[in-house]
């Protein structure tokens, strides 16, 4: 099927191709699931194929001269009991097959229109124990000639988040807040953005994107802090990628760390919204990395202020190795402000008052933190 190997993808060792202690990659991996979906949140829209894997693998990808037949080879991998043929979105894919030969598994995709391999993304996602997700290999195939249907003005709860109509404003803050925040450099990181929508919730039959909710919290938080005399550095203040569209996780996250590090920020706050398969789960969690004693103190102060201000379940303060906590040089915290998959919480997150209330709680936490270390 493949006439000419145009590009070889060796997935980054730090993401999926993790070597074993002996230096060799784990053998006899297995594809445990294959699923696909049409995504309209990119420009152009695209078809995403995701394969769950039992272990780390090497992957190679190629396309034929005509640009119509695309193939990914998963080395030393069996296809297990996964189906062998798939009918996918005909705008991009005539059909796809999964087969096994000589100990390798082949994903072959017959494309509806000629494509360039540079336009097809193949990337890996590391396991996520919290979300109970295994190793994954993802293929994004653009829908040639289609236009993006998701925009900020689209009639959906995702696009009509408070951030889309937010106007910069001044806030009345206490003299105590001004005394501890004046001159402090604080980096605010609204999680996700642009081509990375983050977690997805639903309200009224419409999608709600995490990227919009985090920004709707970050913008009033920025204005509260600047009203108190702090200098605020934003990793993003609009719906955009920080590193660039479709970037892998590490470059995107490092770009956010670089903004904070280059600004010599005194504190870094990354804002996220959690999700889970069980819609009854809810709560807020403060994550820190113990690179200094101040990291824990910042997480504790931010979390306690949230508990004091909001009626939301307490999921605690937890140590973790999230990228933005590890690779920022200043005290940092990643705040998960409720679950977008919880019906009650998503109503609050998309209300006119909810994001501002969360911003106020984060502001109070920063005031308490800087007062504690002064």
UniProtKB/TrEMBL annotation:
Extent of the signal sequence: 1-26
Record-level GO cellular component terms: outer membrane-bounded periplasmic space
SUPFAM superfamilies on file: Zn-dependent exopeptidases
SMART domains in the cross-refs: Ami_3 (SM00646)
Keywords annotated in UniProt: Hydrolase, Signal
GO molecular function, a single term: N-acetylmuramoyl-L-alanine amidase activity
Domain MurNAc-LAA: 257-367
GO BP terms, alphabetized: peptidoglycan catabolic process
Pfam families (UniProt xref): Amidase_3
Name of protein: MurNAc-LAA domain-containing protein
Native source organism of the sequence: Dialister succinatiphilus YIT 11850
């Amino acid at each position: 099927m493949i006439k000419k190997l145009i590009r070889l993808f060796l997935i980054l060792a730090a993401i999926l191709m993790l070597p074993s202690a002996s230096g060799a990659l784990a053998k006899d991996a297995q594809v445990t699931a294959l699923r696909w979906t049409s995504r309209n949140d990119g420009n152009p829209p695209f078809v995403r194929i995701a394969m769950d894997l039992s272990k780390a693998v090497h992957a190679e990808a190629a396309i034929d001269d005509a640009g119509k037949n695309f193939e990914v080879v998963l080395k030393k991998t069996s296809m297990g009991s996964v189906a062998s043929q798939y009918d996918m979105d005909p705008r991009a894919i005539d059909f796809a097959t999964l087969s096994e030969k000589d100990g390798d598994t082949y994903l072959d995709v017959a494309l509806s229109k000629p494509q360039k391999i540079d336009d097809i993304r193949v990337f890996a996602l590391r396991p996520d124990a919290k979300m109970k997700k295994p190793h994954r290999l993802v293929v994004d195939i653009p829908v040639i000639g289609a236009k993006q249907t998701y925009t900020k003005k689209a009639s959906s709860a995702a696009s009509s988040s408070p951030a889309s109509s937010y106007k910069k404003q001044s806030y009345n803050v206490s003299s105590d807040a001004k005394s501890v925040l004046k001159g402090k450099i604080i980096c605010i990181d609204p999680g996700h953005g642009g081509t990375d929508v983050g977690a997805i919730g639903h309200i009224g039959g419409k999608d709600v994107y995490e990227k919009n909710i985090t920004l709707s919290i970050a913008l009033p938080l920025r204005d509260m802090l600047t009203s108190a005399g702090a200098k605020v550095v934003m990793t993003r203040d609009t719906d955009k990628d920080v590193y660039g569209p479709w970037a892998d996780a590490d470059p995107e996250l490092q770009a956010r760390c670089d903004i904070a590090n280059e600004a010599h920020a005194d504190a870094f706050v990354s804002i996220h919204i959690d999700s889970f398969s069980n819609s009854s789960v809810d709560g807020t969690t403060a994550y820190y990395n113990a690179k200094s004693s101040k990291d824990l103190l910042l997480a504790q102060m931010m979390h306690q202020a949230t508990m004091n201000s909001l009626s939301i379940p307490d999921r605690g303060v937890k140590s973790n190795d999230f990228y933005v906590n590890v690779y920022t040089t200043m005290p940092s915290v990643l705040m998960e402000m409720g679950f977008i998959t919880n019906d009650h919480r998503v109503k609050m997150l998309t209300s006119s008052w909810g994001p501002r209330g969360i911003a106020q709680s984060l502001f109070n936490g920063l005031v308490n933190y800087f007062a504690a270390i002064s």
